[in-house]
TrEMBL record, chains A, B:
Organism expressing this protein natively: Gordonia pseudamarae
Lineage: Bacteria, Bacillati, Actinomycetota, Actinomycetes, Mycobacteriales
Top-rank taxon: Bacteria
Family: Belongs to the prephenate/arogenate dehydrogenase family.
PANTHER family registered for this protein in UniProt: PREPHENATE DEHYDROGENASE, PREPHENATE DEHYDROGENASE [NADP(+)]
Name under which the protein is recorded: Prephenate dehydrogenase
EC number: 1.3.1.12
């Protein structure tokens, strides 16, 4: 095992499987920094990426074998519903390679990896970046700059593997947030998956009212429904893979809305929810616009480093390398 | 009665009562275009507006008497909870003046006007513009450019009065949307007031999860909770004054969220809501980003002009003067 270190190695070679918004942006972000190559199922995407000067292929087995030959970190970057085949190819052609992913749920991905490739060296990840657009044409090498990038940090996570995955995030300009898979899934259910359902419900009610309503719609509707414009298949793959955590926060949201409906009907008041919502938004703004609070006093590889990283990240701190 | 006309007169003198975000921005937008003066309860705001070169006062009675002397249109621009006293002053000092407002509900304002000043020449209005900031320091003379400005259009609305109120909206760069008061209130319940409650509930659930969750929060949470940052007193005044219409759309939203919770729990699927939400968002985008569809074939003042304007506006058309 390599000596513990607080500063990550450069990522070395990176192989990106799937060149949609996230995978394609990652390929472009790393180009010039690391030897990076990729695969995509669609020939049209491969041709578009090649036309932009990138080293990509539509041959999965050949791409994964090349990852084995070059000791590349393999990044799974397709929707969760299509991961199984990719992981099976890795198990067959590059069983010893370090594997990570950029998928928006972590427990479901781990179950797929464990089923297809029980011996995988796997450290999951999730960059908190995206737009409501998708596909190669929406990719942006600057997509991850300033974004939070969760890196799976379990009790059994290997320090050198963790540092290498973290170095990919840092190389794109992102900031690393260590978390356990289940804590991550609960967090993103609350701050990403629930907002998709709230946006959809808001959009449906507005559009069901009248053309007049959509004509009058301004900032609150525009911003509050933006993510409802994301491709439905991508939203479904993301939300349905996190069903248990999403059910919890969805029930909470329904409870809050039911409470305010009762308050409004019985007392003509929205005071409690509006007041709580305002305080919650200010708490978010304080974290989002304040300076990054670095995780401190722990060296990756020390005894118990995983638990200490998670503990500090749970309070909102980040790992800056 | 003046001859019917399709093109509005210039607004003439305008008196703005209340110099917060909307009233203050209106004063600034009209300055240079129309003789405009204003009133605000707070001496600090009056001093700030004077320092910016505006003709404003903290003396309500004197300001309203000046409006009577100059035949100014009087614009009510304070929260609905504080309108009564303003309307009483108008009834006392300028009973013959044309009166309008910029408040986000129309039936509640009409009730207050009728109670305090039964003989008022009143044509309500509502510019669909705002930010989550408030007060004179947040005002912006360009706030209304490109915005939709609803102008109350009832069966008894006087054509010349309607045209003069519409001309104020046009002078700020806004586009006029004619509507009945009740249709307006249902529309804004759906596309403005409901989004405030959805934003608040989303913010509360996110902030209740963990510091990790707020740290990971990205675009969907930021945009989906933005309006929860509006001053709670302003949100309450706006939402509670539209309680009947808001209760209807809130119940609809709760029903949709309850349906998707059942689908997710029983079938692991969010397909229906996500699909409907996506179509609804595209319908909104088509209206919001498409060219303005002008109301055509009707002259303000013709027999039945009010009904014809409302009919076309209900389908999303606008009045361009």
């Amino acid at each position: 095992m390599p000596a513990p270190s607080t500063s990550p190695a450069l990522p070395g070679a990176v192989c990106v499987l799937g060149l949609g918004l996230i995978g394609g942006s990652l390929l472009r972000a790393l180009a010039g920094t690391a030897p990076v190559f990729g695969w995509n199922r669609s020939e049209a995407t491969v041709e578009a990426a090649r036309a932009n000067g990138h080293d990509v292929s539509a041959d999965l087995a050949a791409t994964v074998r090349r990852a084995a030959d070059t000791d590349a970190v393999i990044v799974l970057a397709t929707p969760v519903t299509t991961l199984s085949g990719l992981v099976a190819a890795v198990a067959e052609h590059a069983p010893g390679n370090l594997l990570t992913d950029v998928v928006s749920v972590k427990e479901a991905v781990r179950r797929i990896v464990t089923a297809q490739h029980p011996a995988a060296r796997f450290v999951g990840g999730h960059p908190m970046a995206g737009t409501s657009h998708s596909g190669w044409s929406a990719t942006d090498p600057e997509l991850f700059r300033g974004a939070m990038w969760m890196v799976s940090t379990g009790d059994g996570t290997d320090a050198a593997d963790w540092l290498r995955v973290a170095s990919i995030a840092l190389a794109t300009g992102a900031t690393v947030v260590p978390a356990a898979d289940d804590a991550h899934d609960r967090a993103v259910a609350a701050i990403s998956h629930l907002p998709h359902l709230m946006a959809a419900a808001t959009a449906v009610v507005g559009a069901g009212e009248s053309g007049l309503a959509l004509r009058l719609a301004a900032g609150s509707f525009r911003d509050g429904t933006r993510v409802a414009g994301t491709a439905p298949a991508l939203q479904r793959a993301m939300l349905e893979a996190n069903d248990a955590a999403l059910l919890n926060v969805l029930s909470e949201a329904i409870d809050r809305l039911t409470d305010v409906r009762d308050d409004l009907r019985d007392r003509g008041s929205v005071e409690i929810l509006v007041g709580d919502g305002h305080r919650a938004r200010l708490a978010y703004e304080a974290i989002a616009s304040g300076p990054l609070q670095p995780i401190s006093g722990v060296t990756v590889g020390d005894h118990g480093w995983q638990e200490e990283l998670r503990r500090q990240a749970h309070a909102g701190r980040v790992w800056l390398g």
